[in-house]
Amino acid sequence: MQYMLLIYDNPADYTGDNAAVMADIMAGHMKLGADLHAAGIQFSGNQLRPTDTATTVRTANGAQTLHDGPYAETHEQLGGYYLIDAPDLDAAIAWAKRIPAAARGAVEVRPVVQR
Amino acid sequence: MILAEAFAEARVRVVAVLAARFRDLDLAEDAFGEACLAAVQAWPAAGSPADASAWLYRVAHRAALDALRRRQVRAKAPADPPEPPATPEEVMLDADDPIPDERLRLFFVCCHPAIAAEARAALTLKAVCGLSTERLARAFLIGEPAMLQRITRAKRKIRDAGVPYETPRREQWAERLDAVLATLEIAFGQAYEDAAGSGDAAGLALEVLRLSAILVELLPQEPEVLGLAALVRLAEARRPARLGPDEVMIPLSEQDTALWDRALIVEGAALLGRAGRLGRTGAYQLMAAIHLAHVRRIETGRIAWADIVGLYDALLIVRPSVVVAVNRAAALAEAEGPEMALLALEALDEPRLAGWRPFLVARASCLAKAGRKAEAAEAYCAALALGPAKAERLFLQRRLEDVAV
After folding, report:
1. Which long-range contacts (CB under 8 A, 24 or more apart) does B43-47 make?
2. How is residue B97 annotated by DSSP?
C-alpha cells in the first residue's frame, strides 16, 4: 500500500540562529532516505518552501479566487512529505515516527487510494 | 440457552480465524451469524454436533466464501453460474482440521491504537463478544445511530488505512499491547461506572472478565495482562456490596465484606501473584494491588492505609495523573490524618479541579474529618451541583447532612 506521510511543523522553529538544529534535521532526513532505500522501500519525498510562498486557489459557488497564503492559517503547517510503499499501517507508522522533527510537530499518515 | 452458550463459546475463535483469513471483519461477523442461523435450524432435529465450534467454523467458512463469490459476481460481468450452497451435512464432511487460533490477531486488530479509544472498546465487545449495537449504545450512553456510526467508521478505517491483521512486530509490541489493555480498561470502566448496574452493567462486566481471561490464556507471560485480569476481578467482586438497600452508594471502606464475591477475589489474588512472579511491575498490577489491599479487610478486619498510600506513590510514578493523586490524598487522610491530605490536595496544580467531582468529594471528606464543617458542606454542595448519578447523589446528601448540623 502507498502511504503519504505529511509533515506538519512550525516554520518559526526553523528561523533565527539555528544552523545546528537545521543541520541535524537535514542529516536525519538523509539518514531516513538511506534507511528506506536499504529496506527496499519505494519512496519519494520533498521539502516544501515556507507558506509565505503559498498560493491557494479557492472554488466556491462555481467561481475561483486566488488567495495569497496557505489553505489554513495554523501554527503548524505542511512543510514536506514522504510518499512510501509500505506493507501495512504499522509499517507506515514506524517510518513516520522516524521522520526528524524540530522541537514540535506532527506527521499525518494517510493511505493513498489504489486504482 | 444451550445454543446461546455454544455460540458465545465458538464466536471469538470463528470470527477471529475468518477475519484473519479474509481480512474483513464484517464478512467474518456476518458469516458467523449465518452459521448460527443454520445451527438453530439443524441442531434441534439432528442433535448438537460433538464439536459445536468446529461445526460453526465450517459452516461460517463456507458462508464467507459464498459471500465473497457473490460479491465478485456482482462486481464483474456474469461469470460461471454460482455453485448451489452447501448443505450443513456436506460441510460436516468437508474438512476436519482443528480451528486455527487467531484470537490474538483479532484483539490486536480491534484494539489498534490508530482507532479512537472509545471506538476500540465498542468494536472489541462487538466483534469478540458479539454484543449488539443496541446493547453497546446503552452501555456507552449514546444513541444507537451514533454507536453504529462509531463502529462502522472504525471498521472502515481498519480496511482502508491498512491496519494489519497480524500480531505486532517486536518493536511495536509494547505500544500495541498497551492499546489492547487500555481498551479493556475502558470497557470495564463503562461497566463499573454504574454501581446500580445489576443487569446491563454487570453483564458488560462479565464480558470484560471473559475478554481478560482469554488474553491471559493467550499471553500468560505478560505481567500487565495478568495485572489487568486481576484488577477487573478484584473490582467486580465488590459489585454486590456497592449499593445499600435504599440504593445509596456505599464507599469501599464501609462495604459489608460478607457480600463480596470470594471466588472472584481468590482468582484475582492468584492472578496478581502470578504477575508478581514475572518480575515486571506496571500500572495495572499496582491498581490491582491497591484493590487487593482493600479486600484483605475480609481476613484482617482492617485496612492497611499506609500500604495503600505507598502503592499510590508507585502508581504516580508509572502513571502520573490527577486522578491517582486525588485517590492517594484520600488514602493519606486515613493513614496520616486529614490535614496532610488537604495539603496534598492543595498542592495539585490543575485548574479544572474545582469542577471535578472526585476532587471536590475528596476535599469535602477531608474537611469534614478535620472538623471544618462549613467548608466541608460547601464542597459537598459544589460536588452535588455537578449532577452525580443517583447512588452517589444520595451518598453525598447524607454526608452533607452529617456536616450541616
Report:
1. B43/B3
2. P
